[in-house]
Design goal:
By secondary structure, the protein is of the alpha+beta class. The chain has helices at residues 4-7, 15-21, 36-47, and strands at 8-11, 25-30, 51-59, 63-66, 69-72, 76-83. The strands form 2 sheets. Strands 1-2-6-3 form a 4-stranded antiparallel sheet. It has a two-stranded antiparallel sheet with strand order 4-5. The protein is globular.
Length: 95
Amino acid sequence: MEFAHDIIRKPIVTEKTVALMEQNKYTFVVDKRATKAQIKHAVEQVFDVKVTSVTTMNMKGKLRTQGRTQGYRPDWKKAIVTLKDGDSIEILEGM
């Protein structure tokens, strides 16, 4: 994982995460192998902000059924990134 865009997959935008944005916390889907230090460095590099903390969670894939066939969606990793006061990510603002 050399590049920051390989670590940060996409932002998560739900009612709960939009409420967290008011507290300067932003939520992303990240690579499963990424560490907290790598996530912090990637967010600082891509969005040009100062990160104060990173919280990660491994999420289990949900059971899905299609006809008679059952299977699981892939497991994924979620990261909640807290930014320094005064910093924000403009791409996600206004949601």
